Amino acid sequence: MTTPRFVLMRHGETDWNTKNQYQGSSDIPLNAVGRAQAGAAAGWIAHLNPVAIWASPLERALDTARAVASFTGQQVNVDPRLAELDYGDFEGWTWEQIEKVEPGLAAWRDGESDGRWSASGETGAEVMARMGETLTHLDRVTEPGPILVCSHGTAIRLGVAALVGWDYPEIWKLASMGNCCYTEVIREFDAWRVERFNVPPQWKFSG
C-alpha cells in the first residue's frame, strides 16, 4: 500500500530573503540564485515521484513548482490558501525595523503568544487553520502517494502543526526552513507524523 504523504517545499531565494525582509503576501519573484536553486533542486524533488503538484499563487513558489513540473510533465495546481502569512503593513520591513514600532510582536516571534501583524495582516492561528484545511482537503481528493506542495517557510511550519495536532506555540520548536528545502509528513494509522524536516535537496549547485 502506498503511504499518503506531503512533500512541503519552500520556494527559492528572493532579493528580500537576502535582506531579511518579511515578504508575506507580497509577490516577490525569485532572484537569479533562486531560479538556479529551483532548477537544481527540481530533478531531486521529481525523483520523489509526486502524484500531484500544488503551489501558492505567489510567483516565487509557483515558479519553484514549475521547475519540478518541467521534469515530471505534470500540471501545477494553484490554491490561494497555500500563500504565506500576510504580514500586513510590515511587509518589506526587517525585524529590527518592526520591533522598534511594534515590540509586542516579539511574543509572536518567540512563540509565547499569537498576534496580528498590523490591522491588515493575519495571525498565526488563521494561517494554521487555512493550511490545515487545505492540506486535509488535498489528502482527501488525491490518490495515495507524495503530494508536492510548494509554499513558504512560515505557512509550511504552521501547516505541519495543523496536521500533526500541535498547539500554536509548539511550531516555533521547528527551525526556519531554508530556500528549496523540503519537509515530509506521512499519514500512518490515521495519524500524521513528521518524517523529515528542512531537508536540502541532493543538488549540484554553485551560486
Round the mean pLDDT to the nearest integer and report it.
Answer: 93
| Share of helical residues | 25-40%
Distance between the termini: 40 Å
Biggest sheet strand order reads: 3-2-4-1-5-6
Give an account of the 3D structure.
It is a single chain. By secondary structure, the protein is α/β, with parallel strands linked by helices. Helix content is 36%, strand content 17%. It contains 7 helices and 6 strands, in the order βααβαβαααβαββ. The chain has a 6-stranded mixed sheet with strand order 3-2-4-1-5-6. A hairpin with a 2-residue loop joins strand 5 and strand 6 (191-199). Helix 2 packs across helix 3 (59-72) and helix 6 crosses helix 7 (153-164). The termini are far apart.
Which tags fit this structure?
207 residues; alpha/beta; 6-stranded mixed β-sheet; 7 helices; globular
